[in-house]
TrEMBL record:
Protein name (record): LysR substrate-binding domain-containing protein
Gene source species: Pseudomonas syringae pv. avii
Record keywords: Activator
LysR substrate-binding domain location: 10-213
Highest taxon in the source lineage: Bacteria
């Protein structure tokens, strides 16, 4: 009730709960920073969730907004805003690997020690599809369901990893670099998702409206 009353006065308070799929090319921090500038009393809770968990927790009102793939989204239950296409690149540590200037092909990647997410995740399914549609069979050196473990393996020179090209992961240390992969996108587009039915928080609606104003 406090959040709703404050919203009527133009000031948002409370905690915005946002669930984001792993390996998302959508960086939520600029959006959260903008919301915090507009509403200094607003707080944020970020969760890393699978596509199924995003929809489940939106439906049960455990999160306010989700960033997930729009494939098979039920538009009668959820509103969505389509985000930019998720392109892929190869993340590696320049102290251990080096590549030329041209974009890498999927055939190039088969010969490398690759680290990947486990097979149940959408981003991994998109990677497998890109390999298999070209008649290629990858043999990952390491698989994990934790992005930070994958980053540790890359930073240690143990492997390279296929990551979102625009996710900003290469900025984490001076030695990491993201190299473009030719013709590499996820199977489905990402979107910002909000439940259509009540209860729908004023925090979610304000964030949704702010993203809707961004030219795409």
């Amino acid at each position: 009730m406090q959040a709703e009353a404050a919203a009527c006065r133009g000031h948002l308070v409370g905690t915005l709960r946002l669930g984001v799929v792993p390996m998302s090319s959508f960086d939520p921090l600029p959006l959260l920073h903008r919301l915090h500038q507009l509403h200094p009393n607003l707080r944020f809770e970020l969760s890393s969730l699978s596509s199924e968990q995003v929809l489940e927790q939106l439906a049960s009102n455990r999160i306010d907004l989700g960033v997930s793939y729009l494939e098979r989204l039920d538009s009668e239950r959820f509103d969505s805003l389509t985000l930019d296409e998720t392109r892929m690149g190869l993340l590696y540590d320049r102290r251990h690997f080096t590549f030329g200037d041209r974009p890498l092909s999927w055939a190039d990647l088969v010969e490398l020690p690759l680290g990947t997410l486990t097979s149940g995740m959408h981003f991994r399914q998109s990677i497998d599809h890109n390999f298999h549609s070209r008649g290629l069979q990858p043999n990952p050196l390491i698989q994990t369901d934790a992005v930070h473990q994958l980053l540790q393996a890359v930073h240690g020179g143990f492997c390279c990893a296929i990551m979102p090209l625009d996710g900003g992961l290469e900025t984490l240390t001076e030695h990491l670099h993201l190299h473009p992969i030719a013709d590499a996108c996820t199977l489905a587009r990402l979107g910002l998702i909000m439940r259509r039915s009540a209860p729908r928080s004023a925090l979610a609606e304000a964030c949704f409206a702010l993203v809707a104003e961004i030219p795409r």
